[in-house]
Design goal:
15 strands, Chitobiase, domain 2, alpha/beta, 39% helix, eight-stranded parallel β-barrel, TIM Barrel, 727 residues, Alpha-d-glucuronidase, C-terminal Domain, binds 4-O-methyl-beta-D-glucopyranuronic acid, five-stranded mixed beta sheet, 24 helices, 3 domains
């Protein structure tokens, strides 16, 4: 007896249909985090729902362009979801509560409102959201000069509903303060992701251009919702194959999707491409055949992707080829590419992350030494991309001294959203406070108030082209980022790139309300965890200005004992522990890195009395018995900080447990499990580091200090077996 004999085809079809429906229903109910912050579930507070219900009865978008259509579908889905009933597109303003969205160029109704002067003041991507009375009907307007501004306004309006704001009366005007708000993917063509902890690359190069995953569209929606308008698809440790026609066609298929959401596509350029894929003998940027090759290559790119954004380059750094290979400067290299891109309005982002083991000077000084002499030498379509700090995306660094030091050069900051040095996708670390700390730092380059934000948004030096880059933490994981809270870092980056003056509290509150809950007591508890999470991590990893003492290679766990291999990749290079004390002397008596800061800042950092204690060991070699401001010795303070870090994580765990009834079980359990791992691994950090530093300080642990469970050896040989992306 065979299976088909027993069950008729009709029954089988019916069974399969039911099974499919069940699977689909399960998927809809599954709270795996895929929807990110774009969740449009029906509002569960009846009085708010009622008031929104009265204020919103339909919507109009006149015009039929790809970007306006994106706004229309978002409005349709968002409003209907949140209000729990279909909110339809209408054609006239004949009743109260119509949302009228559009531009004067494409909408007659908007054009009749004579908003041109207001909209002009908001620039190309800015928007106005306001309410007005039109022919005795109360309506809501979402208007902009451009389609993209309408899309941004639409997302902003939906955010107001998602976060339960009062919409009875408003007048919101918003425009981005930074022009290029870009994600840098460190994604390789084989779908591995450098420093990626959330699965594979989302770009499935094998199936492109034919198969377009829904994930690409949702990626674009998520980015547009926070104002991100650019993406670099490929790793800065670049593969020249990405520039071959075979890949460009694939890139074009992604660009076609992203264009509907105002996102431009960029690629990384391997400097030696003319040799590798062009069969030239050299990649010397001043060689006419090389200049020609790049010009033709760029023309080819634009013939395939007409609105291509430009190229990002890592050159002469960590083994990458570059102009210095041919005794040329970074400016020579950048300008050669810039000239090829200029006719197409493309740009070059040239990274200042350069340092060389063979240069005897302090690594923290090298980028400044290399780039300051080139100030004023870069073309108008070049942005020099500078990491937030002078070493490398550490849990805490002072701001990079290049900010403010190149007034004749266009500079953009690069932040790392992926948590290479901050616990991968296991540790809950909200990074907005880290980004904010850098943006608010006063460089004093033009006197008091010369903050990094004012330099990079162009207000201080009139920089024409502005940008902000974030190294992406996105992957193929169900929830995109591995840790549910890592989504908040993507979100925060976008919001700060739009407005670098926003604060972490506002950003986190929005995100929590959109992602988890609008219950204000729960919001408060989650906020408490998020806002102290970065400092907690600094404490249990690298307190008091320690840096780069992570385990060699994977950077996840502690490795203060790492002392072999390339010198500037060892930990001992950075912490300099000895019998006298701890820390890297970068004062005038040491490497003199302080000299790279403007005088007011230099003095603060140089003088141990005025140096902020959270950067002590970055700038000074401090004796173990040094009396800290608390009255404790350095050794005691160090123990105290490491311990504070653990205490914070324990608090996060109990605070999270208190949220069980507020959060859906799937995400609740996921975060709960991750917090337990975070505590386990934070203890490995504390105990490994303190036992190691104790071999120099020769001091006992202070009274009341929880003793490490194991001997130093155990930590030095510890192997991680359950950490995504870490081998
Ligand atoms: O922090 C280091 C990382 C490298 C990275 C490099 C860079 C892409 O360990 O993986 O390479 O920075 O920013 O270029």
């Amino acid at each position: 007896m065979t299976f088909p004999e027993k069950i008729s085809a009709g029954k089988l079809a019916c069974f399969l249909f039911l099974l499919l429906a069940l699977i689909q229903k399960e998927n809809l109910l599954a709270e795996n985090g895929y929807r990110l912050w774009l969740r449009y579930d029906k509002i569960d507070n009846s009085s708010i729902l009622n008031s929104y219900d009265k204020s919103i009865t339909g919507w109009i978008i006149e015009g039929n362009t790809p970007v306006l259509n994106s706004a229309a579908s978002e409005l349709q889905e968002g409003l209907s979801g949140l209000l729990g009933k279909t909110i339809s597109r209408v054609t006239t303003l004949k009743r109260n509560g119509i949302i009228l969205a559009g531009t004067p160029g494409t909408s007659r109704l908007i054009s009749n409102l004579k908003l041109d002067a207001t909209l002009a003041g908001l620039g190309n991507e800015g928007f106005l959201i306001t309410d007005t009375v039109f022919e005795k009907k109360k309506i809501i307007i979402i208007a902009s000069k451009s389609d993209l501004g309408v899309l941004y306004g639409t997302f902003h309006f939906l955010r107001l509903l998602q976060t339960r704001q009062d919409i009875s009366h408003f007048d919101i005007r918003s425009s981005p303060k930074i022009m290029i708000r870009i994600l840098d993917h460190w994604d390789n063509l084989d779908r591995s992701v450098e420093r990626g902890y959330a699965g594979l690359s989302i770009w499935n190069w094998n199936s492109l251009p034919d198969s377009i995953s829904k994930r690409y569209i949702d990626y674009a929606r998520a980015n547009a919702s926070i104002g991100i308008n650019a993406t670099v698809l490929t790793n800065v440790n670049a593969n020249s194959l990405a520039l071959t026609r075979e890949y460009l066609v694939k890139v074009a298929s992604l660009a076609d999707i992203f264009r509907k959401y105002g996102i431009k596509v960029y690629l990384t350029a391997r400097f030696s491409s003319p040799v590798e894929i062009g069969k030239l003998k050299t990649a010397d940027p001043l060689d006419p055949s090389v200049i020609d090759w790049w010009k033709n290559k760029v023309d080819e790119i634009y013939s395939i992707i007409p609105d291509f954004g430009g190229l990002l380059v890592k050159a002469n750094s960590e083994g990458q080829p570059g102009p210095q290979t041919y005794n040329r400067t970074h400016a020579d290299g950048a300008n050669m590419l810039a000239d090829a891109l200029a006719p197409h309005k493309g740009i070059v982002m040239w990274r200042a992350f350069v340092y060389d083991n063979n240069v005897p000077d302090d690594r923290a000084k090298q980028a400044y030494n290399e780039f300051v002499p080139l100030d004023g030498k870069f073309r108008k379509n070049v942005l020099v991309q500078v990491k937030n700090g002078p070493v490398d995306f550490q849990p805490r660094e002072p701001f990079h001294p290049l900010f403010g030091a190149m007034p004749g050069t266009q500079v953009m900051p690069e932040f790392q959203i992926t948590q290479e040095y901050l616990g991968g996708s296991v540790h809950l670390v909200f990074l907005a406070p880290l980004f904010e700390e850098c943006l608010k730092s006063d460089t004093w380059s033009k006197g008091a108030g010369s903050t990094v934000a004012k330099i990079i948004d162009g207000t201080l030096y009139g920089q024409q082209l502005t940008g902000m880059a974030g190294v992406s933490n996105i992957g193929s994981a169900d929830n995109w980022t591995g840790h549910p809270f890592a989504q908040a870092n993507w979100y925060a980056f976008g919001r700060l790139a739009w407005d670098p003056y926003m604060n972490s509290t506002d950003i986190a509150s929005e995100w929590i309300r959109m992602t988890f809950t609008n219950n204000s007591s729960a919001v408060g508890r989650i906020l408490g965890i998020m806002l102290s999470s970065r400092e907690a991590t600094v404490n249990y990893m690298t307190p008091l200005g320690l840096h780069h003492i992570m385990y060699y290679g994977h950077h996840y766990g502690p490795g203060p004992w790492v002392n072999t291999g390339r010198k500037d990749w060892t930990s001992v290079y950075y912490h300099r522990a000895d019998s006298i004390g701890l820390g890297f002397d970068r004062s005038t008596t040491g490497s003199n890195a302080v000299s790279q800061y403007f005088p007011a800042v230099r003095e603060i950092f140089n003088n141990i009395e005025s140096c902020p204690e959270n950067l002590f060991l970055w700038f000074h070699h401090v004796p173990w018995d040094y009396k800290m401001r608390s009255g404790r010795t350095l050794w005691e303070e160090l123990c105290r900080k490491y311990d504070d870090g653990i205490r914070s994580v324990r608090r996060f765990r109990s605070d999270w447990d208190s949220l069980r009834d507020e959060i859906d079980p799937e995400r609740f359990e996921k975060v709960k499990t991750l917090l337990a791992m975070q505590e386990r691994d934070a203890r490995i950090w504390r105990d490994g580091c303190l036992l190691y530093f104790q071999t120099f300080s020769k001091k006992p642990f202070p009274a009341g200090f929880e003793k490490p469970e194991h001997k130093l050896d155990y930590y030095m040989n510890y192997k991680y077996t359950d950490i995504p992306g870490i081998k």
